[in-house]
From TrEMBL:
Name of the protein described by the UniProt record: Bifunctional chorismate mutase/prephenate dehydratase
Location of the Chorismate mutase domain: 26-116
Stretches the record annotates as Disordered: 1-29
GO biological process: chorismate metabolic process; L-phenylalanine biosynthetic process
Pathway: Metabolic intermediate biosynthesis; prephenate biosynthesis; prephenate from chorismate: step 1/1; Amino-acid biosynthesis; L-phenylalanine biosynthesis; phenylpyruvate from prephenate: step 1/1
Record-linked Pfam families: ACT (PF01842), CM_2 (PF01817), PDT (PF00800)
Lineage top rank: taxon: Bacteria
CDD domains from the UniProt entry: ACT_CM-PDT, PBP2_PDT_1
Site (Essential for prephenate dehydratase activity): 284
Taxonomic source organism: Tautonia sociabilis
Length: 392
């Protein structure tokens, strides 16, 4: 039941009652100045506490360096955020608590070591937003020109991590990323980021004058019905990223871009329409790629790449051990093994699978041994903590 604010008249109080009580209460009612003084006192304590926390994080950094441990621990960060959300009784919204703790840990991490993360740019692409959602703002986000370049940057050790899109709930797999994994990239998935995607139509011309709409192929596809209904006259033009589309719309007349609200603000465009994605639930899953994957946390997922012979029943034979062990598969994607196929031979297929659990869990490890015997190639692309969906 809603509680009555202190000093508020009860609904049945008479007007003279209220006038009398109003005079008495005005003596006790907090003033703007007294409330602000209270906030100043709390802020003083908060700043001291935040810095105390940062000092301890810096000490953790020294322990990690001594023991040769990695600075970034996505599992621990998820745990800290989960505990903070469970302890919070409001009135701050959960999303605010999450953002505060994300930035707190981002700043603490940067005291231990400065990190660089490559993602598909330019700035304010959804990959960049996913990188901010995972690492916060106290890392160096390095926007590059293609998904292949993200892999390259990590492989050459120009950055510690890369962020690449894996799949979208409306539009399916991101072939450029799967193809890079298929080419024996040698890199591992270290964490996942599930980002809720809200698209905006951004531009400088009135909606009715828009002749061309630029965006990444997946974003155009996710807004296909909205576009055909609302902008049937416009030509749809695919470009490398949504943020690049925003850059073009900034300088070209009668053009618009489909990108995030943040990209619109960054590139000085008007929001002509928002939330134009066809599906209410439009989530892209990104992978953080690195040289190594994560240790088990008890709440993990493993991504596998399989090459299966082109024979009747081969796939069901390969999947049988998962069923026998009661292991849940959360994704399966087939992909032509074009780089490995030879002319004159039946084409073979690669399969990308997500299985719940960590490759070092005894049940998963035993199952993978059985699966390995039934396929032509099995690669563990990474075991990592399962991520929660976050707003972009
Ligand atoms: O617990 C750790 O390992 C820390 O380094 C501290 C901390 C934090 O600020 O809470 C910072 C960075 C890590 O990625 C995880 C957590």
């Amino acid at each position: 039941m809603p509680t009555k604010p202190p000093g508020a008249p009860s609904p049945d109080a008479s007007a003279s009652d209220r006038r009398g009580r109003g005079r008495a209460d005005s003596k006790r009612a907090p003033t703007l100045a007294s409330l602000r003084a209270e906030i100043d006192r709390i802020d003083k304590e908060l700043v001291a506490l935040l810095n105390r926390r940062a000092e301890i994080a810096a000490q953790i950094g020294q322990v990690k360096e001594r023991d040769g441990l990695e600075v970034w621990s996505p599992a621990r960060e998820e745990e800290v955020i989960r505990k903070a959300l469970a302890q919070s009784r409001g009135p701050l919204p959960a999303q605010t608590v999450r953002l505060i703790f994300r930035e707190l840990m981002s700043g603490s991490r940067s005291l231990q070591r400065s990190l660089r993360v490559a993602c598909l740019g330019p700035k304010y692409s959804y990959s960049h937003l996913a990188s901010i959602a995972k690492f916060g703002n106290a890392v160096e986000h390095v926007p590059v020109g293609s998904i292949a370049a993200v892999f390259e940057e990590v492989n050459r050790r120009h950055v510690q991590f890369g962020l690449v899109p894996l799949e979208n709930s409306t539009d399916g797999r991101i072939s450029d990323t799967l193809e890079m994994f298929a080419r024996h990239s040698g890199l591992k998935i270290r964490a996942e980021v599930k980002l809720r995607i809200h698209h905006c139509l951004l531009g400088k011309s009135p909606w009715a004058d828009v002749r061309r709409v630029y965006s990444k192929a997946q974003a155009l596809s996710q807004c296909r019905h909205w576009l055909s209904k609302n902008l049937p006259q416009a030509a749809l033009v695919e470009v490398v990223s949504t943020a690049h589309a925003a850059e073009i719309a900034q300088r070209e007349q009668f053009s618009a871009a489909i990108a995030s609200r943040t990209a619109g603000e960054a590139y000085g465009l008007d929001i002509l329409a928002e939330n134009i994605e066809d599906q209410l639930y439009n989530v892209t899953r990104f992978a953080v790629i690195a040289e190594q994957s994560e240790a088990p946390t008890g709440r993990d997922k493993t991504t596998l790449l399989l090459r299966i012979s082109n024979q009747a029943g081969a796939l069901s034979k390969v999947l049988a051990p998962f069923e026998k062990a009661g292991l849940n598969l959360t994704m399966i994607e087939s992909f032509p093994a074009s780089a490995e196929n030879l002319p004159g031979r039946d084409p073979s297929y690669l399969f990308f699978l997500d299985v719940e659990g960590h490759a070092d869990d005894p049940a998963v490890s035993k199952t993978l041994d059985a699966v390995r015997k039934r396929c032509e190639r099995l690669e563990v692309l990474g075991s990592y903590p399962r991520g929660d969906c976050v707003e972009s």
